[in-house]
């Protein structure tokens, strides 16, 4: 299947979208990669934005249809964000709009934009990299061991407000401290811990999701962990499928950046994030590539 631009805008945003001289490339898919790293990225991004694969029929065709829709959404959202003030010239917009799609195999290799905090395809590649790091560490653990290990995934959602006294940079600093506290509580052998922001529907309000994947001892006391997590999942058997499901569930893409979040507030968030490090790797996950 060939991917082309849809030329549509999310409802309510057409008035701020502008036309630019961008040459859109067509992508021809040749298959669906079946590695567990690909499954993790599809769970985190593709299914999160457009829903899971349902129904019967050709699996490639159904994945193709979703990637085609995601490509159109990404290109139209990029135009809206640039119209709302995202600093990006036409050349850079062209690179981003034609970012090499993940989730399917493409006949030819194209450039990637590396806009990991926004681009759904680059975000998916980050999830693939995280899966490989986690899986490599888990596979290296000895089968016969005196200490039992769990692979832990957690998420906590909350809403915070910015005003004249509290800015986004202040919220980012608070999240860094919370990340360190979480690490101290878990004392993991390896971990990926961080936060994601997206604009809520109410003006000045942001949705924050704290999440992490950590390799911990089964004796770790999680009785008070509810302060840091709304929901927790544990994996005891380190199979590729189990790890992919946990990583994909934990590291979901923040959909309002792409779908219906206020473009001006998304731009504000992206600009504030330039100097902020909201996610970090620790221990064994930090050493593995």
- Structural category is alpha+beta
Series of H and E elements: EEHHHEHEHEEEHHEH
From the N-terminal CA to the C-terminal CA, the straight-line distance is 33 Å
Rounded to the nearest angstrom, the radius of gyration is 20 Å
Q: What's the pLDDT, averaged over the residues?
A: 86
Q: What fraction of residues sit in β-strands?
A: 15-25%
Low-pLDDT segments? 1-20
**Order of strands across the main sheet:** 7-4-6-5-8
- Count of runs of 4 or more consecutive helical residues: 8
DSSP, total strands: 8
Domains, number: 2
Largest sheet: 5 strands, antiparallel
Topology at a glance:
Layout: E1 2-3, E2 27-31, H1 36-50, H2 59-83, H3 90-97, E3 105-106, H4 120-140, E4 149-161, H5 168-186, E5 190-199, E6 205-217, E7 231-235, H6 240-250, H7 263-272, E8 279-283, H8 284-287
Antiparallel strand pairs: 1-2, 2-3, 4-6, 4-7, 5-6, 5-8
Helix pairs in contact: 1-4, 1-6, 2-7, 4-6
């Amino acid at each position: 299947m060939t991917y082309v631009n849809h030329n549509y805008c999310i409802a309510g945003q057409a008035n701020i979208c502008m036309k630019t001289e961008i040459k859109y490339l067509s992508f021809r898919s040749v298959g669906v990669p079946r590695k567990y790293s690909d499954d993790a990225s599809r769970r985190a991004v593709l299914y999160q934005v457009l829903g899971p694969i349902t129904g019967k029929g050709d699996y490639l065709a159904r994945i193709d249809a979703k990637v085609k829709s995601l490509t159109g959404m990404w290109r139209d959202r990029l135009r809206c964000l640039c119209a709302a003030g995202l600093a990006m010239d036409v050349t850079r917009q062209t690179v981003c709009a034609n970012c090499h799609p993940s989730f399917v195999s493409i006949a030819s290799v194209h450039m990637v934009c590396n806009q990991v905090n926004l681009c759904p395809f680059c975000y998916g590649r980050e999830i693939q990299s995280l899966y490989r790091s986690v899986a490599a560490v888990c596979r290296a653990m000895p089968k016969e061991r005196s200490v039992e290990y769990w692979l832990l995934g957690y998420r906590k959602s909350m809403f915070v407000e910015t005003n004249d006294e509290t800015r986004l940079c202040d919220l980012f600093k608070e999240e860094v401290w919370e990340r360190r506290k979480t690490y101290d509580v878990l004392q993991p052998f390896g971990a990926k811990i961080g936060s994601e922001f997206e604009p809520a529907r109410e003006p000045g309000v942001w949705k924050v999701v704290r999440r992490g994947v950590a390799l911990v001892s089964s004796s770790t006391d999680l009785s008070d962990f509810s302060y840091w997590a709304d929901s927790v999942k544990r994996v005891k058997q380190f199979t590729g499928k189990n790890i992919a499901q946990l990583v994909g569930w934990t590291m979901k893409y923040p959909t309002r950046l792409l779908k219906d979040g206020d473009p001006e507030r998304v731009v504000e968030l992206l600009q504030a994030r330039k100097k902020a490090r909201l996610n970090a790797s620790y221990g064994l996950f930090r050493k593995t590539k």
